[in-house]
Amino acid sequence: MFNYTNSGITISSVLDNRRATNDNLYPIKIRVTFQRIRKYYATGKYLSINEWESLPDSKKKEMISIKVDIQNTFDTVKSVIKALLYEGGFSFEALNSRLNKSATDTLNNGFKLKIQALKDNDQVGTYLFYQNAYRSVENFSGENILFASVTVDWLKRYEKFMEKEGNAYTTIGMYCRAIRCVVNDAKKAGVIKENQYPFGSGKFEIPTGQGRKLALNLQQIKAIVSYSDGNETTERYRDLWFFSYLCNGINFADMLKLKYSNIRNGEICFMRAKTVRTSKLKKEICAVLTSEMNAIIKKWGNKPRKQDKYIFPYLNGKETVFTEKRIVKDVTKRCNKRLKVIGKALKIEGLSTYSARHSYATVLKRSGANIAYISESLGHNDLKTTENYLACFEKEERVKNASLLTNFGE
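The line above is the sequence of Site-specific recombinase XerD; the predicted structure tokens follow.
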């Protein structure tokens, strides 16, 4: 079913029908032939002769899974042989030694170690992301994926699998970067060698996708802030969105963790949780506490205003990090649901909590604010990050303006 030939070495997946089990099944093996010598390597799978013959075209879920496992073992043997040929010396002794070393660990175990480390470090968001990525990888290729089988071909097949599952290229790219991170850890640990590394120029290049980022203009923002359907819940989430916009585009996770002690000298000062772990420079962000923000706090905030109390009534400080994450996610989801109602009424597509931050940056840019100021207020560590962040919005503006060139009013 799977075959490969290189430099006088032939690799084939075969049904070893020399001896059957008590159930009349035969082991599937990877046969390597070199200088008329044959060696067999187990896949751990067994089939009857009829099942083996029908395997290539079978649509049964169980048979497809077996086929994937066979290909994983085949790709492992193939990648090791290619590496040995590249290094200039193939022998069955070297092949056996390398295969035994490759079998000492798997991509699955690498993911599990990474996930546990994130959990121990209370990095809840990243922990949940790696769990989802690992679940996707396991659904694609099983529970025993040798690092040596994570080749360029394997990654391309995974990309196609993700596409068929209906995933956006943004998600595909993120999951592939998670795989790369785990493989990088294995490389550092000596589990794989440099010539087995599948990522980079001329190898597998991780796809990138660009999600639609909505940046509103001042007229649209005014319409949102003025909108009311007579529903108190709609007004509360509308105001939380407006607060996020005014507070330097603060994300909801950071906003819900604000305490009254964060208000100092007429400003709200805070650190972004997203970058405080990863940046050596711990940069505090300060946003002027405007009259509009004060009005929102007065209307929806906790009372009385005690220094150790959260500004908004969603957290109490006694939650575990996982409960905290769940609450923030729930509030964000509820807000987006209301924003969708507002957006539909005002004919603004894609309105979400993210658009508050996008709009904050773009309104300042279009109003002539210094990019260094925008960078500092967003909490970016360098101007390049801010320039890249704003670039996609400016492209939207260019596309919109280009259409005006042929708006003949016919």
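Note on the example: The chain has a mean pLDDT of 88. The two ends are 62 Å apart (CA to CA).
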